[in-house]
Amino acid sequence: MVKVLVGKTSELGEGKMTHLTAGGKEVLVANVGGTYHAISNICTHAGAELHEGELKGNELKCPWHGSRWDVTTGKLIWFPQKLKELGKYKVTVENETIYLEI
Ligand code: FES
To answer: Is the pTM of this model over 0.85?
Structure first.
């Protein structure tokens, strides 16, 4: 497992998202109610980059065809067809700095 710097907590306020590439994976990190969550940034439907979508609470809407995902679990909330879950990764905070463990 590798620990990767995401950024300062002050740079990722509530309801905000960022993205990075780590360990060969595209990862989205979101702040939901003061807790940081990391999931795959690539929609399993057709490959959209989810950080370009819309985040409301824990619900992230894909920018291409509107699938809705739970950013806290990587699970699909809504889409007309069944889609594979998004990968979920561990996030830690130390000294106001966010790290991704991947
Ligand atoms: S690429 Fe995300 S719903 Fe189609």
So the answer is: yes
